[in-house]
Amino acid sequence: MKDRSVDVFITSPPYNLGIIYSAYQDKKGEAEYLDWLEKICFEIKRVMKDDASFFLNIAGSSSNPWLPFELIVRLRKIFILQNHIEWVKSISIGKESYGHFKPVVSKRFLHRNHEYIFHLTKTGIVQLNRLNVGVPYKDKSNIARRSHTYDLRCRGDVWFIPYDTIRKKSEKFNHPGTFPIALPQMCLRLHGRKNPVVVDPFMGTGTTLLAAHYEGGRAIGMDIDKNYVKIAKERLEKAVLTK
Ligand SMILES: C[S@@+](CC[C@H](N)C(=O)[O-])C[C@H]1O[C@@H](n2cnc3c(N)ncnc32)[C@H](O)[C@@H]1O
């Protein structure tokens, strides 16, 4: 890919947790895994425009909670960590619970209800459109006090994005690690450029490409697994036909 040609990268690489994909073996040695992703990130930086955003979604596991942090410290020599977003998949407020998570059966560990979205940029001064993903003020007196003509504020860096309720794995295309489409949509809205060029180098079932399609962008996706590429193509074709 050409230098400085991409507006937004959104990706969720394999997490190196031994997840069962149909082609990819998700279990490298830790040093090998980090070297591999670091090399890819140098290439990502090369093809990013100077005001591009790179949203990197990753999580650890109960047995390897350090991994996302090891990675982000490594990436310090390549990018500025402009924002660190917590993706909350499930939350309990008082006695009410919202969203879904994979239960952890353990006397030591809590269920893991969140993942990380690291927002990496080349300079740390990339302008975002925070109100594109904004929320209305709870206390409406803030609108006048802040001399706003609109009822919106920045939603902050904790994003509750639940998965749809599914009954069968086939509803998630038998892929073990998809993210909900709202996740790349919110990243694209936050970056906020019109008609962005979007890339997901680990696209799986093509969720990022679909989000780019709905948000008016042009997207390029890659996956090592031909079956996932086929699913991504089918999802996109269906979206184009029904738009
Ligand atoms: C966490 S999944 C991404 C899922 C995606 N976000 C979605 O919603 O469907 C990671 C993907 O990386 C792919 N992958 C692993 N190694 C790769 C490589 N060297 N090049 C491209 N894709 C690779 C796997 O096949 C897997 O589909």
Automatic annotation (TrEMBL):
GO terms for biological process: DNA restriction-modification system; methylation. This is Methyltransferase. The keyword S-adenosyl-L-methionine applies. GO terms for molecular function: DNA binding; N-methyltransferase activity; site-specific DNA-methyltransferase (adenine-specific) activity; site-specific DNA-methyltransferase (cytosine-N4-specific) activity. Its EC number is 2.1.1.-. CDD domains: PRTases_typeI (cd06223). It comes from the Bacteria. PROSITE patterns: N4_MTASE. GO terms for cellular component: cytoplasm. It is an enzyme of class 2 (transferase).
